[in-house]
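Worked example 3 (structure in, sequence out).
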């Protein structure tokens, strides 16, 4: 298949000073992919490609503040009960762990709830848990971050 050369845009500067030698942005991309996705990238192609991907400063700040994150995904085969009764049960379970619901939304066949510890008193160690339930999956995420 022919590919017109005038449709290719080369953006210099992302490859670093020398081919095959990682530079600062490449190392940062390797760490970011490893920390967020447990993804191992090679420093010659993949990491340099990720290093050239624009990430907004706000997203970089949020990612940089993460200390720990855990994610679980469960397949839902036979959901029983209404979403409001499931939210009530989730509230009880999280209360027993010392958390309270910050927000809960039920819309269409989806449920989203965010929980935070009742005794959170520091911006150095913020913890939040998010529950997302739709017809086919339950996703639970807990993250710790430093907001300073």
């Amino acid at each position: 298949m022919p590919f017109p050369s005038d449709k290719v845009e080369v953006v210099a500067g992302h490859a670093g000073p020398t081919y095959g030698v990682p530079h600062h942005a490449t190392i940062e991309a390797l760490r970011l992919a490893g920390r967020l996705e447990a993804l191992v990238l090679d420093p010659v192609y993949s990491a340099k490609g990720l290093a050239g991907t624009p990430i907004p400063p706000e997203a970089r700040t949020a990612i940089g503040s993460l200390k720990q994150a855990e994610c679980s995904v469960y397949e839902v085969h036979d959901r029983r009960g209404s979403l409001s009764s499931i939210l009530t049960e989730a509230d009880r379970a999280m209360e027993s762990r010392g958390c309270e619901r910050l927000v809960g939304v039920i819309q269409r066949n989806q449920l989203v709830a965010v929980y935070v510890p009742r005794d959170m008193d520091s911006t150095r160690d913020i913890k939040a848990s998010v529950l997302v339930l739709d017809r086919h999956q339950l996703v639970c995420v807990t993250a710790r971050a430093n907001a300073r």
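Notes: Helices lie at 24-37, 46-51, 57-65, 83-96. The CA atoms of residues 71 and 141 lie 4 Å apart.
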